[in-house]
UniProtKB/TrEMBL annotation:
InterPro entries: GlrX-like_pln_2, Glutaredoxin, Glutaredoxin_subgr, Thioredoxin-like_sf. It is found in: Cytoplasm. Gene3D superfamilies: Glutaredoxin. This is Glutaredoxin domain-containing protein. Its main location: cytoplasm. Pfam families: Glutaredoxin. The keyword Cytoplasm applies. One of its GO terms (cellular component) is cytoplasm. Signal peptide: none annotated.
């Protein structure tokens, strides 16, 4: 599974101490949760409830007729761990990891990528291919 590979590669933790093994195990379970969620839904958006850019992405998708699966990380029990995983996946060490949009089981990106796809006209065909739009 392509998503699982990308998510799993973001989980690599070096070291042999028990603490590192426990952290790796926790991240592995979070990785499996995210992978299952992303592969089982046409569009998944990871957000934080008070984030204005997250709101913009959700409104854009809703406006296009998409019903994405939305995970608000500040309201999810494993939200902090998922956010850490998204930081690793997006390559944004201390930057913006949300909104994080997955379409058709693949990581599309954040607000910049989604808006660029929308402006270029490639977002709707991508959503249709993923089965998120039928018209």
């Amino acid at each position: 599974m392509e998503v699982a590979k990308g998510v799993r590669s973001a989980v690599r933790i070096n070291g042999g101490a028990d603490q590192h093994r426990a952290a790796a195990s926790d991240l592995e379970s979070v990785c499996e949760k995210v992978s299952a969620l992303v592969s089982g839904n046409a569009v998944v958006v990871f957000t934080i409830s008070g984030c204005c850019m997250c709101h913009v992405v959700k409104q854009l998708l809703f406006g296009l007729g998409v019903g994405p699966t939305v995970v608000e990380l500040d309201r999810d029990a494993s939200g902090g761990q998922i956010l850490s995983l998204l930081h690793r996946l997006s390559g944004s060490g201390g930057g913006k990891a949300v909104p994080a949009v997955f379409v058709g089981g693949k990581f599309l990106g954040g607000i910049e990528t989604v808006m660029a796809c929308h402006i270029s006209g490639s977002l709707v065909p991508l959503l249709k291919t993923a089965g998120a739009l039928w018209l």
